[in-house]
Specification:
The protein is mostly beta strands. It has 3 helices and 12 strands; from the N terminus they run ββββββββββββααα. It is elongated. The N and C termini lie far apart (64 Å).
């Protein structure tokens, strides 16, 4: 019975997902990285919470070649994912740093960024010791595909006075930086004119 006890030991390992930016309506693969001082780690569990509008493809999460065990991904509630790895043969995680899990995520077309968290994480050693890992927070940015938000001529996710001024500059023959013509042509006539400026002003003022 004593062998089944998992004693808590000091936090010495770290698990992290680097800050990232994703294009709205598209998918990408991020990695969960493990930095570990121990060489006897054979199982793990982490809780990943994603911001609204960002989802994890649970069917296609993959372990890297650092770990020959099995991966199970559960969804106890919306936007919350349990990542559990184990090995019936007590195979250990190799190396001391690098990607442990590949995580494919998809952003909705209306995704506007947010915070993701890794919490309640721990690792298990071959002699059944439990190694706690510290919680971490991930900044998730977003970018729009040009043309997805009419009036947002600088593609920052908002329609405001900045977009109005940039469109005026473009309409009078200047060439402002980071100007997306697709987003400025409000009436789809192939030109950017004062008509488009007025329409962008109306959106900026109304907030719609």
């Amino acid at each position: 019975m004593a062998l089944l006890c998992m004693a808590n030991i000091a936090k010495a390992e770290s698990v992290v997902i680097e800050d990232f930016t994703i294009t709205c309506g598209e998918s990408m693969t991020i990695t969960l990285d493990l930095n570990n001082s121990r060489s006897d780690l054979t199982a793990f569990e982490f809780t990943l919470t994603l911001p609204e509008g960002l989802t994890l493809d649970t069917e296609n999460c993959l372990l890297t070649d650092r770990y020959p065990g099995a991966l199970v991904v559960g969804t106890p509630e919306e936007n919350v994912y349990k990542l559990c790895g184990f090995s019936a043969n007590l195979d250990v995680i190799s190396g001391h740093s690098g990607a442990l899990i590949e995580l494919p995520v998809t952003a909705s077309k209306t995704f506007r960024g947010g915070k993701a968290t890794l919490e309640e994480g721990y690792l298990i050693t071959t002699n059944r010791q439990r190694v706690e890992v510290a919680d971490s927070e991930i900044n998730v940015g977003f970018q729009l595909t040009p043309g997805t938000l009419l009036g947002d001529v600088n593609n920052d996710g908002y329609v405001n006075l900045t977009d109005v001024m940039l469109t005026v500059n473009y309409a009078i023959g200047q060439n402002p930086a980071n100007f997306y013509v697709e987003n400025a042509d409000m009436n789809s006539d192939g030109q950017v004119t004062v008509t488009d400026v007025v329409m962008i002003v109306n959106i900026a003022v109304s907030g719609n």
